Amino acid sequence: MYIKQQHFDIAIDEAIENAQESIREVYHRAVMTTKKETKFRDVVSACALVKADEYGTFRATDLQEPLEQITGERINPNSYFYHLDQLCKDEKGGIIQRIGQPKKYRYRFRSPLIKAFVRLKIYQSRQLSCTQL
Q1: How far is it, in rounded angstroms, from Cα 14 to Cα 8?
Q2: pTM of the model
Q3: Per-residue pLDDT at 131
Q4: Measured in whole angstroms, how far is the alpha carbon of residue 58 from the centre of its chain?
Q5: Nearest 10 degrees: CA dihedral of 90, 13, 64, 22?
Q6: Tens of pLDDT along 47-96?
Q7: Coil, strand, or helix at residue 77?
């Protein structure tokens, strides 16, 4: 028996639907906004796609390439620093954790499960292929 694309898609949908409520809630708080033009969803997605070090951390400037991949536009790092900072706060679910000292901050997902959930959401929205998961 072969696993076809449709089987994989169904499995992704079910994994997202059956994810822990706390993970879905943190993600929703992180990307929820009242403004039409915001980068929160894109920045969270870029955080899930960034090449992290062995501790799962990355620099803010590391998000530039995945953000450009997601948006298809050249991104100025100053345009997403605010969003990254907000994603570390409780109001946005504290989905991202800031580590280190000012000017040397590194970031990581508060939970590796949230990172995996975000990657599944990216795939579900067709921004990521199954080989990129």
Answers
A1: 10
A2: 0.86
A3: 52
A4: 13
A5: 10
A6: 999 999 999 999 999 999 999 988 889 988 888 999 999 999 999 999 99
A7: coil
| Helix axis angle, 40-49 to 112-124, nearest 10° | 110
Query: Where are the extended beta strands (E) located within 3-123?
Result: 96-99, 106-109
User: Is the CB of residue 49 less than 8 Å from the CB of residue 67?
Assistant: no
- Region class of 15: left (phi > 0), else alpha (psi between -120 and 50), else beta: alpha
Q: φ, ψ for residue 15 (rounded to 5)? A: -65, -40
Sign (positive or negative) of CA dihedral 72, 77, 80, 84? positive
Q: Helices 21-31 and 112-124 meet at what angle, rounded to 10?
A: 70
H helices of 34-111, where? 40-49, 64-71, 78-87
The C-alpha atoms of residue 98 and residue 109 are separated, in whole angstroms, by 9
* CA-to-CA separations, 27 to 15, 50, 96, 118, in angstroms, rounded: 14, 17, 10, 8
